[in-house]
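WARN no homologs supplied; continuing
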Amino acid sequence: QVQLVESGGGLVQTGGSLRLSCAASGRTGSTYAIMGWFRQAPGKERQFVAAIQRIASNTYYAEYADSVKGRFTISRDNTKNTVYLQMNSLKPEDTAVYYCAARLSSCSGYRCLTQGYDDWGQGTHVTVSS
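OK structure emitted
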């Protein structure tokens, strides 16, 4: 059974930091080319946050939504099948449910990295108080 399990969400004050984790399991014999994070605020559509693609043994390529560039950092540990999202300088508008997503096929370009994901987590809540 494929599972992506997020953790690390919670309540934080404006300017604070959180680190989200997402552990993937169940894809025997397959590895994810791309892992990413999306978020959905109350009453709004789900939006892309960040994605990271493995392009060589120790080389990764990451893309970020403009709203989080310079504040969020995505990383992954393939030995643990885990992706992380370090969120700094949090703002109230970052409040949302954050979802981990994983894609088997590789691709290139920003638009490609924002779509076509095969597996999704259940989400973790992040609330930033003003």
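The mean pLDDT is 94.
OK
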